[in-house]
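Internal ticket - ligand job 389, flavin-adenine dinucleotide:
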Amino acid sequence: MLSFENTEIAFSSKSDKDLKRAQFLFKMISSNLLVNSGKYLSRFAMKAHLPVAWAVKPTIYRHFVGGETIEECMPNVRVIEKHNVKAILDYSIEGTETLEEINSAMEETLKTVFNAAKDENIPFAVFKPTAFTLETVLEKVRAGEKLSESEKMEANNFRQRVTKLCQTAFDNGVPILIDAEDVAYQNFIDEVVDANMEKFNKEKAIVFNTYQMYRVDRLEVLEKAYNRAVEKGYYLGAKFVRGAYMEKERARAAEGGYADPIHPDKDSTDRAYNAALKFCIERIDRISIFNGTHNEYSSRYMTELMAEHGIKKDDKRCWFSQLYGMSDHISFNLANEGYNVAKYMPFGPVRSVLPYLIRRTEENTSISGQTGRELGLILKEMERRKNGK
Ligand SMILES: Cc1cc2nc3c(=O)[nH]c(=O)nc-3n(C[C@H](O)[C@H](O)[C@H](O)COP(=O)(O)OP(=O)(O)OC[C@H]3O[C@@H](n4cnc5c(N)ncnc54)[C@H](O)[C@@H]3O)c2cc1C
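stdout (structure tokens):
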């Protein structure tokens, strides 16, 4: 019987010392004041080129990030694989501003594909598409401005870079996830990703697009993507998330005077998310599903759908995923039951990973003084260990 309540399984990879460190961290994070001042201080420190690593590295970075390099992540991969939990190494740089930065991101991401190819406990590669073109070009696309000839060429280079990553993934037999970010760039990214699915997903899903289900139009887009896959004879790779940029999207819509692209409330996002899972499980012959969520209901719901449709727990077309350092109660309990589970393990230099870390702290800040979800689970497990139960 699947239960997310079992903290013994959830924290089986954590020593008492690890738990104590995590408890301290989530206690700090749960303070609104601390998170807000920390956020501004770290942004200021980044802009002023002040060192932030000394404060961040041994604390929050260590909890949520695998390391600065692939090699540094590997001992962490080895720890979780003992519990049947796999890892996806995610080179987490955001907002590349020069061609040099793009080339270096390309090189590092290609390395993650080669690394995954030789490690059975790294089942996917992943990248953020916005790392592969200039921020200036993306900004123009976002603002709906006309691109100059050289910018058009750069947009074309983006297409080629994404295709190169997908081709390398295909050649090495490593499925590759393409993250989703701002609504404004997504049409262009969808078009490039769909073309790559058509090219590389003829025998199975290698290229996966991401559907942010907080967007009102995504169920329709998913259905169209499925119809296209059927019509053109390829497999659809579908990664689902609710979406991480709600406030930013709402603010942009208000500012730009266009309709809010996000569902009006959490319930409608939840309904759309679960409907997408159902849609895909019912069409599992054509779709591979990557369920990226910390939501217990959506994780359990997929297990129920799988059972209903006679899909084996370890069917390679069905994956569950949570972020490294979060929701181990879901990951480790699912893995213990025999489901396919992989943690997103970000890596990269401290400065580059800061925006990612700021998002994680914001997510874990307590709402009106309640003990956060993570902290509550850590305290429960500490209590259990103390009582020797
Ligand atoms: C493995 C993995 C990969 C991820 N990759 C991406 C990615 O590529 N792109 C990306 O954008 N995010 C990504 N995320 C983050 C994700 O989008 C969510 O922000 C995060 O996981 C929280 O949502 P949840 O489903 O886990 O949990 P929940 O706590 O159930 O849901 C919280 C989410 O619900 C939505 N929501 C909350 N309040 C409202 C409201 N009032 N109205 C409408 N919607 C609301 C928001 O999307 C919010 O993030 C990823 C997460 C995981 C676990």
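Auto-summary: The chain has one domain: 65-353. The pocket of flavin-adenine dinucleotide is lined by residues 179-180, 210, 212, 214, 241-246, 262-263, 265-266, 269, 292-295, 321-323, 344 (CB under 6 Å).
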